[in-house]
Amino acid sequence: VSHPMTLAYHMEKMPWKAVLEKAKQLDYRSHQAKTCGLHVHVNRTAFGDNIAEQEEVIARILYFFEKHWEELLKFSRRTHRQMEQWANRYGYKDSPMEILDHAKKGFRGFRYTAVNLTNSATVELRLFRGSLRFLTVVSALQLVERICSVAMCLSDEELKQMSWSTFVAGCGQYPELVQYLKERRLYINEPVTAEAEV
Q1: How many helices (H) and strands (E) would you count in the chain?
Q2: N or C end of the chain, less CB within 10 A?
Q3: What is this structure's pTM?
Q4: What digits encode the pLDDT tens for the residues 7-35?
Q5: How many C-alpha atoms does 92 have within 13 Å on its Cβ side?
Q6: What is Dmax (Cα atoms) for the chain?
Q7: Which has the closest alpha carbon to 64: 3, 130, 114?
Q8: Count of alpha carbons within 13 Å of 70, Cβ hemisphere only?
Q9: What are 98-155's pLDDT values in tens digits?
């Protein structure tokens, strides 16, 4: 579970490589445990100065998850059954705000969702299966950054029209994410060989 921090802090200050290596030295299991998750927290204040602005962005994040569920499932390395148990979806609606309203009414206090809204200060993205592999962890952090950025910059209509191909074509500034997307066969049909998950 990450503390909320900027991607720059994750990449430049947070000693992820050392943490992951130490966990491996201590014989920790993550991906192989099959029940371990990688949860990324984002401060709600990153989405706007007031609750209304924040909720507009959060609604677009929820919409992105529903629209691109199959791609995100493949990225996550989880099965449908694991998602139902640990990171369920809210269900597709026609607009981002409809999904947020549905989430607030029907899932109050329910944290086992891919986008957990039960924390007052953060939004928790909990769809990822755990890993002790640096590339996988960093890729998840970069994906969260990219999704949040898209949700903050695009209108509802622009987000509705965005395809997965367009989304990943804009990931070029994140080399680890691009590599991982290629490994998972989610990036413009450029398959590569992948290192085993730990």
Answers
A1: 10, 3
A2: N
A3: 0.93
A4: 999 999 999 999 999 999 999 999 988 88
A5: 8
A6: 48
A7: 114
A8: 3
A9: 999 999 988 777 889 999 999 999 999 999 999 999 999 999 999 999 999 999 999 9
